[in-house]
Amino acid sequence: MPTAAHIIYIPVVLLVGIAIGFILGGRAARDAQAGAQRADEARAARRAAREAARARDAAGSANPPDTNTPG
Predict the structure, then answer these.
(1) What burial class does residue 2 get, using C-beta atoms within 10 Å of its C-beta: 0-12 exposed, 13-18 middle, 19+ buried?
(2) Residues 17-52: pLDDT tens digits?
(3) Among 24, 45, 43, 47, which Cα is nearest to 35's?
(4) How far apart, in whole angstroms, are the C-alpha atoms of residue 13 and residue 11?
């Protein structure tokens, strides 16, 4: 027959474990969300740089220097 200590001890340990898991799980979720946000920002920065380079290259090739005229 379980003693009164077991009737109190087991639920208390269970609740402490749930509380610790909730705290650690919330922290892990916040870290994962922050990492995903940093990755999205880095991806957007790379995309913007790539588009700027394409625009710069397109502007340069649309008006090539005139090399056929004697100078």
Answers:
(1) exposed
(2) 999 999 999 999 999 999 999 999 999 999 999 999
(3) 43
(4) 5
Angstrom distance (rounded) from CA 65 to CA 18: 71
Greatest pairwise CA separation for the chain in angstroms: 108
Q: Residue ranges of the domains in the chain?
A: 35-59
The confidence band for 16, taking pLDDT boundaries of 50, 70 and 90, is very high
Both tokens of residue 19?
């509380």
Residue with tokens 């990492």: 35
Cα(41)–Cα(49) distance, integer angstroms? 12
Note the residue count of the chain: 71
